[in-house]
Amino acid sequence: MAEIVIVRDKAEAGALVADEIAGLIRADPEAVLGLATGSTPLPVYEALRPRLQGVDVSRVRGFALDEYVGIDPAHPESYRSVITREVVEPLGLDPSRIRTPDGSPEGIEHHGDEYEAAIVEAGGIDLQILGIGTDGHIGFNEPGSSFASITRVKTLTEQTRRDNARFFDSIEDVPMHCITQGLGTILRARHLVLLAFGEGKAAAVAGAVEGPVTASLPGSAIQLHPHATVVVDEAAASHLTRAGYYRYAYANKPDWQGL
Ligand code: GLP
Fold it and tell me: Locate the Glucosamine/galactosamine-6-phosphate isomerase domain: which residues (predicted)?
């Protein structure tokens, strides 16, 4: 099962995950990071900044999970822009080594395969950061997504478009389609780190961690991964039935294990 780490707040989560990522980059300057958008990973990116001072990040590679189809890449809410603003610029990464799926409609039917090939060519993703949608989606793999899926175009659910309308002027402006790494792609990353904060994520977290493994809750795919870590605050952990055990296991974790 995934390791569940229940933390006090976002800052503690950010520090914990940033320590792991900074250690990874120090050990391997060519580390390949799987980057997530949304509000959830922001504390990780913030905490990474001081930890990467003086560290050579010039060869770090990164692959974003997803992108909207048909959005102008220069739009402030395109995931290309978000990753540039929140990750690439503040951390001083080389933009040419950080990719987002290509959401331009022209040739879209090939963009998924091209993205998969680029990930393989980079040697695979070492650590994949994940948030989770209120409907249990990871990346933009909406309920029903195949566990074997690879990067491809998906239609967003109404719920996801409503959730993401806060980034746009209105729900009508939220694109209908996206291109996202598949659950199969995500499961090939060597370490998954899923973060979630707040009561609104509690049901999705409980389903992903303790519910049946089902395509109806795509986040439950993490139960199939040999090295998955779930970092949640008290509110996001509030529907977990075995929280006591997770705290006990983490408190008694052997030092050599790391995150
Ligand atoms: C979006 C992204 C997901 C993200 C989710 C949750 O739909 N495609 O990768 O995990 O929203 O967003 P937030 O972290 O803002 O709650």
Answer: 12-224
Q: What is the pLDDT of residue 116?
A: 98
Question: How far apart (Å, rounded) are the C-alpha atoms in residues 146 and 144?
Answer: 6
Ligand 1 atom 13, closest CA: 38
pLDDT at 1: 76
- For ligand 1, whether the C-beta of 36 sits within 6 Å is yes
9 is catalytic: no
Above pLDDT 90, what percent of the chain? Answer: 96
Distance 53 CA to ligand 1 centre (A): 28
- Which CATH number fits the domain 3-254, given the four candidates 1.10.10.60, 3.40.50.1360, 3.30.1490.100, 2.40.30.170? 3.40.50.1360
